[in-house]
Specification:
By secondary structure, this protein is an alpha/beta fold. The chain has helices at residues 10-23, 25-44, 69-86, 90-100, 128-201, 213-249, 271-297, 303-310, 329-332, 337-352, 372-385, 402-405, 414-417, 449-453, 456-468, 484-488, 506-518, 542-550, 559-568, and strands at 50-60, 107-112, 118-125, 252-258, 314-319, 360-364, 390-394, 430-431, 437-440, 471-475, 494-499, 523-531. The strands form two sheets. The chain has an eight-stranded mixed β-sheet with strand order 5-12-11-6-10-7-9-8, sandwiched between helices. Strands 2-3-1-4 form a four-stranded antiparallel β-sheet. The protein is rod-shaped and about 200 Å long.
Length: 575
């Protein structure tokens, strides 16, 4: 058989997690309820926050031959995204405050609608009316800002052209003035010629009249300059009109689609939502802690796990009965369920010895705190109560316990027998208050217990006892502490491994089983000890047990009353 851990199926792992979750469900629910209650209380104390929103659309007007409707719509979408990202500025909020007549106290947020020229302005405030008014004012102020920005973009060009046109108009005025002076001089010259003609007709001598030739040159120059200035002015005026037309044709406007209205249902706080989220988070965190603790504990919680992992049967489940106070529970209280558990263990051992005789039995454990000596003593007691002649040998020559359980002297015991002749067992085998049950204590603690237990004389001791008793039970030291138990496995018919799941974890159990399998020991099974049945998966129906065994005791005697009668009655238990 492979000694490594067997891979568990997903279903088995899921069931294991489910059992852990079910076992601690009360704690998880308690944490979830507390977290939800605290979150609800804290959330309910927070100030209410209200929200209002308004939508606006970006309109791009275009009558250009090179600007089709598709391009205009795409430009509107891009502008809507840009406006949503950049519109909320300090200057805009200042303008909104001036419109409202009071400072903006809420939070303003703008978002664009995907693949659409529409953007949404959302305002959160402690006053629902203020939230709605602020949202409407933001849209209006931004629409005015867009118009101002566009106007300022064309204004510089228009102003420049208008200045140039005005300059040309001034220069043309000067030219017109000079030309008018030249025309006046020309009229005066013509009138002078006319008067001379009249004087000649009258027989009078004409007046000498001459015209300055430079006037002709100057007039020609002025006419040329006037023509140039008029042409330039016409071109500038055409450009100015074109810019004005472009401004009108490419105008971008913001239109409000819907007015923001006050919404009197607060968006924050939401006590129920906060409580639900906190409860879920608390449940998950508590579950994480529970699973982490369960993983770190590395504890066997299901008896079937031992069989699944290592192929070793569980032949006994002994509940917690306070072995420190009443170690021989099967003698002092034979009618308790724990005493019945020892009798079940006895029956399972009898079935284990059907194919091959089982006269010598080794009781060991992985660690010192598993309670093997208590199990060995009580198992021997129920075997003796079944009319078997039983002897218990305390093979733990390091920390002997059997003499304490039976309250006997340890002055003379197994270690002292090694100094005697093989046939002389007098004084070593001691009687107990339990009929048919004898004890061989450990005796004086030797310096070399492993050598004594592995000697031929120890084998002779076990063989001799097997001839005179129906069952020989050896209590040995823990497997993981010393090698004494492994030495004794070679001289017995079978081994039972006592495990306290609270004290010995999976790794210790695995190592103990591997050691026994390595020396080819006949491991009959595992006995789970010190189990709290009400808190684990080892639970069995205690009420059924009482109704079955005490239903004919007469009257309405409770288990506690029967237990009290056991304490005052005989110390000899029977089935």
């Amino acid at each position: 058989m492979d000694n490594d851990f067997e891979e568990r199926s997903s279903l088995e792992s899921l069931l294991d997690y489910s059992q852990t979750l079910w076992r601690w469900l009360w704690l998880l629910l308690l944490v979830a309820i507390l977290a939800g209650a605290v979150a609800y209380f804290i959330s309910d104390q927070q100030p209410r926050v209200y929200q209002s929103s308004s939508q606006a659309i970006v309109n791009v007007v275009s009558r250009s031959d090179y600007y089709d409707p598709y391009t205009a719509n795409y430009s509107s979408q891009r502008l809507a995204e840009t406006y949503a990202q950049t519109m909320v500025t300090e200057s805009l909020l200042q303008a909104v405050s001036e419109k409202l007549g009071y400072p903006v106290t809420g939070t303003v947020k703008a978002t664009s609608v995907e693949n659409s020229p529409i953007f949404t302005v959302t305002v959160t405030d402690s006053d629902p009316q203020k939230a709605a008014d602020t949202a409407n004012a933001v849209v209006a102020a931004f629409a005015e800002k867009v118009v101002r920005d566009q106007s300022s973009r064309f204004q510089e060009l228009k102003s420049s052209l208008e200045v140039e046109i005005a300059t040309l108009d001034e220069k043309l005025s000067e030219i017109y003035y000079e030309l008018s002076l030249l025309e006046m001089k020309d009229r005066e010259y013509q009138e002078a010629l006319k008067r001379n003609a009249e004087l000649e007709n009258a027989g009078l001598e004409p007046v000498n009249v001459e015209k300055d030739p430079q006037d002709y040159v100057k007039k020609a120059e002025l006419e040329l300059i006037k023509s140039q200035y008029q042409s330039n002015r016409s071109s500038l005026f055409t450009n100015l009109q074109s810019i004005r037309l472009t401004e009108v044709q490419s105008a971008t406007t913001i239109s409000q689609l819907n007015q923001a209205v006050p919404v009197y249902d607060p968006i924050q706080p939401q006590p129920m939502k906060s409580a639900g989220l906190a409860a879920l988070v608390g449940f998950m965190l508590a579950a994480g802690v529970v699973f982490t603790v369960a993983f770190l504990e590395d504890e066997i919680r299901d008896p079937s796990e031992i069989t699944h992992r290592w192929g070793v049967p569980v032949i006994g489940i002994i509940t917690n009965f306070g072995s420190d106070e009443t170690p021989l529970i099967t003698m002092s209280k034979p009618r308790l369920p724990v005493s019945e558990a020892f009798r079940s263990l006895r029956t399972n051992l009898q079935f284990s010895g059907i194919d091959s005789p089982l006269k010598t039995l080794l009781v060991t454990s992985p660690s010192p705190a598993d309670g093997k000596s208590s199990v060995a003593a009580n198992l021997a007691t129920v075997l003796a109560q079944n009319d078997k002649n039983v002897v218990v040998v305390d093979g733990d020559m390091r920390r002997p316990t059997i003499h304490k359980i039976f309250k006997l002297s340890n002055r003379l015991g197994l270690s002292d027998y090694f100094l005697r002749a093989p046939e002389k067992m007098s004084g070593v085998v001691k009687k107990t208050p339990v009929n048919n049950l004898s004890i061989i204590t450990s005796g004086s603690l030797p310096p070399n217990p492993s050598e004594l237990l592995s000697s031929t004389k120890m084998r002779d001791v076990v063989t001799l006892l097997a001839k005179h008793f129906d069952m020989v039970i050896l209590d040995s030291p823990p497997l993981l502490a010393v090698t004494d138990a492994l030495v004794l496995t070679k001289i017995v018919d079978g081994v039972i491994l006592v495990v306290d799941p609270k004290k010995t974890k999976r790794a210790g159990i695995r190592q103990a089983i591997e050691q026994l399998q390595r020396v080819d020991a006949r491991l009959l099974g595992v006995v789970l000890n010190n189990i709290k049945i009400k808190r684990s998966s080892y639970y069995y129906n205690r009420e059924y047990y009482y109704s079955k065994h005490y239903g004919k005791t007469g009257g309405d005697s409770s288990p506690e009353q029967v237990e009290a009668s056991d304490e005052s009655g005989t110390s000899q238990g029977r089935e």
